[in-house]
Design a protein that fits this description.
mainly alpha
């Protein structure tokens, strides 16, 4: 294993073992492998560059402190992702109470056409109210289930569903604006 030349093909089991032993070079290799997707997740949830960096730092500190507790080495990335999600939620709770719109529980199927760019979609997602954005990102981007989001965010499944529906309604309007203007 050649770490000095920037080799990133270190098996995850070796990354875990090295981190448990406190090997700083291996810790850096683990960080380098996962920092971009985890920062992207934190940024999508928080819509704040500085807060996303804070969350990333907090999350990786927790990763290095707790990695010895990881039972299934095959789920390293999803384990880190969960730590990042929880850190982002904690950061928001630390700053202020998350606000959710009061909406009826409606299940509506939405279909979006592809007449907008990825940049426009990203901008529309970032424009969502905080609670709606977090639910949308966790469910539609990260693949969480409503039950998991409800547990992570300390809300009901019905609230998760209605917030997702509301987020999609807002996104549909925003994307129509991009298409028309």
């Amino acid at each position: 294993m050649d770490l000095k030349s920037g080799n990133t093909t270190i098996p995850e089991a070796d990354l875990i073992t090295g981190c448990i032993k406190g090997n700083r070079i291996i810790q850096k290799a683990l960080y380098d492998r996962f920092c971009k997707p985890m920062f992207s997740l934190a940024y999508r949830m928080l819509n704040d560059w500085d807060l996303a960096h804070d969350v990333l730092q907090d999350a990786f500190i927790e990763v290095f402190k707790s990695i010895h507790q990881l039972k299934n080495k095959a789920v390293l990335e999803s384990w880190i992702r969960t730590i990042v999600v929880r850190s982002a939620i904690a950061k928001i709770r630390e700053r202020k109470k998350m606000i959710f719109e009061s909406l009826p529980n409606i299940e509506t199927a939405y279909s979006f056409d592809d007449s907008f760019t990825g940049e426009q979609l990203d901008k529309a997602i970032r424009s969502l109210p905080e609670g709606n954005r977090m639910v949308f990102v966790l469910i539609e981007v990260e693949g969480y289930k409503h039950r998991e989001v409800a547990e992570l965010m300390n809300i009901s499944e019905g609230t998760s569903k209605s917030q997702l529906n509301y987020a999609k309604t807002i996104l549909k309007k925003k994307l129509a604006e991009f298409r028309n203007g």
